[in-house]
Amino acid sequence: MLGFSRNVGFSGAIFCYITWTFCTADVTFISQPAGSTVILNCNTSISDLTQLTWELNGEQLFAFSTLDNGTLHENPAASRLNVRLNLNQSTIQRYALIIERTNKSHSGNYTCETATGKGLINQKWELLITEEPENFQIYIIVAAVAVPVCVLLLMVCVVTLRRSSKQKPKKIIRSLRPKKQTEAVYENHLEIERYHERFNVCQS
């Protein structure tokens, strides 16, 4: 009985591993930075296509049927995520899922299921949206503003230092000028007194 249980457990583990390998073999992994545009192409035969659905993590985004001249059903999840289905017949990306300005909420497992004359075909993608680009843009803006401001402050400091160095000798010269004038006035006063003394002597 114990050996039978071991065999059953071992067989179950092998079955789970094979199933997991089979399910993940056709998954395409995509990694893109936030803010970029991601296009998931659902490669299918357009001639015998009858129905196509797009899902994200098991939640349906779009359901398109070629019957009745083509009917498209868009779920609220598609509007919330701001994704759209390309129905342009003139492009090779027809029925592709277009995700513009991606963010982290767009990360997940996408599935495109098509019904054709050959049966059901599933294509799967695992999309990973990396860090937000806004932080990087903020760093660029801060650097672009900080560098000119630093240069401007440096120029102001240099101009201020030059002006202060030029003004110091002028202050010294101005401080000396009044002394020269007072000395000249004092000498003139002495000469006048001497002149009066000589004049008085001559008269006497």
Automatic annotation (TrEMBL):
InterPro entries assigned: Ig-like_dom, Ig-like_dom_sf, Ig-like_fold, Ig_sub, Immunoglobulin_dom
Pfam families listed in its UniProt record: ig (PF00047)
Transmembrane segments: 138-161
SMART domains named in the record: IG
Keywords, in A-Z order: Immunoglobulin domain, Membrane, Transmembrane, Transmembrane helix
Keyword Membrane applies: yes
Keyword Transferase: no
Domain Ig-like: 35-128
Highest taxon listed in the record's lineage: Eukaryota
UniProt-recorded name of the protein: Ig-like domain-containing protein
